[in-house]
Every structure is written in C-alpha cells, then in structure tokens.
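Appendix C: a fully annotated inverse folding record. The material below is reproduced so that readers can follow the format used throughout the book. The structure is listed first as tokens, followed by the designed sequence.
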C-alpha cells in the first residue's frame, strides 16, 4: 500500500484503489508500528473515503514537523571508490576505506523537515560549491520504537567539492536549504524489500539525458536494520524518523549538476521522485 502526504489529507493507493483520509497530525498518524493494519482498518470501516486518483500537484514531502532526516554513507562500494577519488588530494581517502569495512557505519544528521522538499519541488546546490551531485537513496520510515514500517525515495544532494576538500566539511557539503528531496509516497509494507529491487536515476539537461545509472539493493553492504540500530543507539525519536541508506550511484568526476537539470529517481514498487535544480 502507498500513502501520499497532501496538505490536510493522506491519499491511499491500495493496488489501484484510491482513498482519502483527513489527517491534521501527520507525525502521530505515521508513528504507528501497525500502520499497515491501521490503513486497512480505515478502508474496511469506510473512514477512508473513495477517491478517483492522486492529485500529483498536491503532494508534499512525506515528513512531519517533528521528524528528523538522517542519512548513512559509504554503504555501497561505488560510494567508497567515488569518495576516495575526490578526497585523495586532501589525504582523506583512508577514512572512506576504513568506514566501508568498519563495524560502525557512517551515520550523519541530514536535515530538519524545513530543509526537505517533496516531489516536483526544487532542490538546491550551494553557491559556494563547484561540484554537485544528487544521491539516489532508499529511505526508511522508522517509528519511535525503531521499527521500519515503510520506504520512500530520497535524494541526498551533495557538494563533492566541499566534502572532497576536507572530510570535516561534511555537514556543509550535506546540509543546507533544500538539500534533500523525499517522496513521492511512502510504500507501507510488513515485508522487507526484495534484494533485487532496482534503484535508478536519470538526469536530463534541456530535455537531453546527461546521466543514467542504476544499482540493485543487494549491492548495499549493510542491512536497513543494522543502519537503524546505529542511528537509534543513543538518540530517541519521539515522532519517528526518516533514514537515507546511502548511494550506490555516483556520476563520474566529469559530471556536475547545473541549474535547470531534472533529476528522476525511481525505485521499484515505490515510484519515481522528480526534482529540478533551482
Ligand atoms: O561520506 C560522505 C557521504 C556518503 C554518502 O552520503 C553516501 O554514501 O551516500
Ligand atoms: Mg548519501
């Protein structure tokens, strides 16, 4: 089942049957270990009213005001290699090799909800950055108890010139206004995603494809549960959280994003998140 956050309602897509429920408090609606049963109950009882479809222009980012967005890094070999290349001159390359092998993963705070945009909204690149990429990432919806109840698509916008200059600049490379996009929906399921699930990304400039790549979830070195356990080790999330799981697609060093570029990220069973660079 997929749910879409709209301004004061939640739209439900139950295998092509659409419903709408008035929801004013997204945080408490979503922070439910049994969300799938709750949704089924709302449909069964008629509390969710029938709808004809999803109004795409009304979709907002599926994050509440009390939820934080966290991210994990260097969880795929491609990210380790890309980062080692960009940080060779700064002497930071070893850090990426070590964290890829270490028991403790790289985990970082990505954004407060006001810095996150939704489907069809604009993502930004920093004015003081010269090399910028989107990072397409499976993103977990996790309740306050630490249970993964759903999945969405995330774009962890990153400045490679800033993080490559010095790994200690990571928060500046990663966190700024409109530095992350998530959506369009949350895929609610009580089963883990199939390992063969494909994540793919297409970047277009003036309607021409300038980058295309894909990776399967089985290429991820860590499990979603392992990542959640580290994020939740010493932090509580009273309203639940969203956690990006790292990128396995990194464009070559000759590619940088430009204003006007369109980024399309698709994950099988979830959908396609589309954003244009401001
Ligand atoms: O260490 C830098 C960030 C890594 C990251 O965001 C990723 O691998 O997705
Ligand atoms: Mg990332």
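Designed amino acids, in order:
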């Amino acid at each position: 089942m997929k749910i879409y956050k709209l301004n004061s309602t939640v739209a439900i897509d139950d295998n092509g049957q659409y419903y709408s429920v008035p929801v004013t408090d997204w945080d408490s609606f979503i922070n439910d270990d049994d969300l799938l049963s709750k949704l089924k109950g709302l449909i069964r009882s008629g509390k969710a009213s029938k709808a004809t479809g999803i109004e795409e222009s009304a979709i907002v980012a599926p994050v509440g005001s009390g939820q934080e967005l966290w991210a994990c890094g260097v969880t795929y070999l491609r990210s380790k290699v890309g980062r080692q290349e960009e940080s060779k001159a700064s002497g930071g390359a070893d850090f990426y090799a070590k964290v890829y092998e270490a028991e403790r993963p790289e985990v970082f705070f990505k954004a407060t909800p006001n810095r996150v945009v939704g489907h069809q909204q604009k993502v930004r690149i920093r004015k003081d950055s010269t090399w910028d990429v989107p990072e397409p990432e499976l993103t977990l919806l996790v309740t306050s108890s630490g249970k993964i109840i759903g999945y969405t698509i995330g774009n962890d916008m990153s400045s490679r010139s800033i993080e490559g200059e010095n790994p200690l600049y990571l928060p500046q490379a990663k966190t700024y206004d409109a530095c992350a996009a998530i959506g369009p929906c949350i895929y609610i399921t009580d089963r883990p995603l199939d390992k063969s699930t494909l994540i793919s990304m297409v970047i277009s400039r003036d309607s021409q494809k300038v980058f295309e790549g894909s990776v399967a979830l089985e290429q991820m070195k860590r499990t979603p549960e392992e990542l959640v356990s580290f994020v939740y080790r010493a932090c509580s999330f009273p309203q639940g959280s969203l956690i990006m799981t790292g990128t396995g697609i990194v464009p070559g060093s000759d590619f940088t994003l430009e204003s006007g570029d369109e980024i399309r990220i698709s994950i099988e069973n979830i959908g396609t998140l589309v954003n244009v660079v401001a």
